[in-house]
Write a structure and sequence with these properties.
binds FE2/S2 (inorganic) cluster; six-stranded mixed sheet; 27 strands; 22 helices; globular; single chain
Amino acid sequence: MKDIRILTGKRTVFSSDRVIEILREKQIYAQKEEVIKIVEEMRMPMQMRMHTKAALSIAGWKQGYVLDVILTAGSSIESLAAKYAAGDDRLRTAVVYAMAESGLEDFEQQVLLQTSAICREEGFEIAACMPNEAADAALLERELYERLDAGRTLGIRKTDEAKRGGGKPIYRRYKLTETASEGQGEEQREYSITLLAEEETTHQAHTISCAKGSSLLQALREQNIMPPSYCGGRGTCGKCRITVKEGSLPVTLEDQKAFTREELRNGHRLACKAVLQNDLTIRIASAKEEFAVPQNDALEGIQPGADNSYQTGDYGIAIDIGTTTLAFALADLKTGQIQNTHTAVNSQRKFGADVISRIYEAEQGRQKQLQQCIREDLWNGVEALLEKNREKVRKLHHIVIAANTVMLHLLRGYSCAGFCRQPFRAVSLKKEEITFAEAFGKPFGHSFQPKVTLLPGISPFVGADITAGLFACGIAKEEQPALFLDLGTNGEMALKIEKQLFVTSTAAGPAFEGGNIKWGMGSIPGAISKVRIRNGAAEIETIRQTPPKGICGTGVIEAAAELWTAGMIDHTGRLAGEYAKQGYPLAQTESGEWIVFTQQDIREVQMAKAAIRAGIEILCMRSGVTHAQIGRVCLAGGFGYFLNIEKMASVGILPRELAEKTTAVGNSSLRGALMHLMEQNSSVMQKMAEEAKEISLAEDKSFSELYLNYMMF
Ligand code: FES
């Protein structure tokens, strides 16, 4: 590789424990509670200022090769630190630098995964990180600075580096070994992995062909076996846990962070960090995900358009591509009757649970695989519906698809580069009318070729699913101000006042989908979805009433709300007594392990709720509407459908005044796509999307203040 490659980071993870450690290493001693408090307050401002970037290059060195890497957190951290330094707030200044350092370390973990893959492509393996002795450090840094042209590629100012007290770039040199060529037998090995089902009664043997050095998660994904993986394989979410029953896997640094000593002794490992060295028998938590989806009553009562010229037997399909699940509805275009529905898990989940992971994977060269996944899912869903209605469907005329902008870009194969950096940009937001082959990658296997419509989006992070949802809820026709909310990793919201529609989106993080929660999981059978605390003890309900395995997004909100109402957390979010250390016990799994709700879980809820609530408040402020003036609130999406609105208000996600005006509207995106399909009214959504005014929270000065305010209970 002669070129310098540039990698950019995504959402940065800041660990309070690591920040405390870094401060101690720098001999800055402060009350732990005080540091944690500052870290929590600074998360969002830091998140907005961390622009992690790495430059790397392989070069000949002595008799071999080395990989040189520089990682930087960007220059915006400096101005934030300078602001606190000017106010003589030394502790906060030090915390800012320590957070930048901890965030950069997290980024280094992300980069390591990619650099290993890049090196393999180039025919190398990373053998070791070369020690950077203090005496040589300045020399090495200077050499790497020149070699990687860091002034131009990373914007690092050479002269300032030595002076900085923290947040300094990381300079690394790795020794490389050349991989043996194919046929030498060692690089491509076959390991036999026996997978045990959860109950350990059914054995399902898989022989996995695995390139030396690739991760177990990767090997499982290639076999379409998908352990949950919210962080996309970075080793930070702890969801891809497996248990080794026979054989061995070394304990990695990430395993040490994710598991207790006892869990490690019992064979718990993270699949994304596990590198195969021998045959294994493992148990994985759940290879097949089955998500609870809202009932389809949201689809009833749609009438065909007045100028309907369809014949008996003419059908159409509406599709909502969600980041987690896909929903399909087959409609009789003549009568308007819904013939059948179908749901499936979005198989792109193997690349990560949220849109950010998908963007990241696409940018790492896996765009084609992502496109293939969604095309196959769509094809299978359409075929499943037609198969069930073979006798009735004479002709499939039209398919209408609603989805967020990232999902539509992945379907169309458009570049996702514009979603990585501000100002965010989409390749296309317009409604598109395309052929079946253009959407699905191959012609339809029937005599008829339906046309395909992709609905219009408003902005990169307020997509066609929101346009369709707004259309379905009749927001444009509301006389009183009306609020529309779709909560998830990305919280999208819209406020209609008179003729104007204001929209915004806020990064809530994965807590509402069970991500970054110790026992968090998707809305699958066994997930705790309801919590009630009576006399200090928890009573729970799980999805499908099966034995508890973890806690889903709705359970997360319920647990936080109940703990708050029971007085077991204070307004800063601190858990009472010994629960602060051990977590609050919710239920025991079948194997006797306690599912606990931890202090860190509460912090995740606080960040998610603060982001949503601050978004709602900014939307109201900028459109000049008070809570009292809002006549109706529509809560869209699967998560909203199962939520207890009272509990949402009790933790402060929603203003109390709006709780009684709120109704869950289910999958409004699918309903909007269906309405478009039936009514053939092509211009309304496009007009709505074009006229909507987007409010950027990143540029709103009040956002950080409100965010910090709503972190509290
Ligand atoms: Fe392995 Fe997140 S920790 S996928």
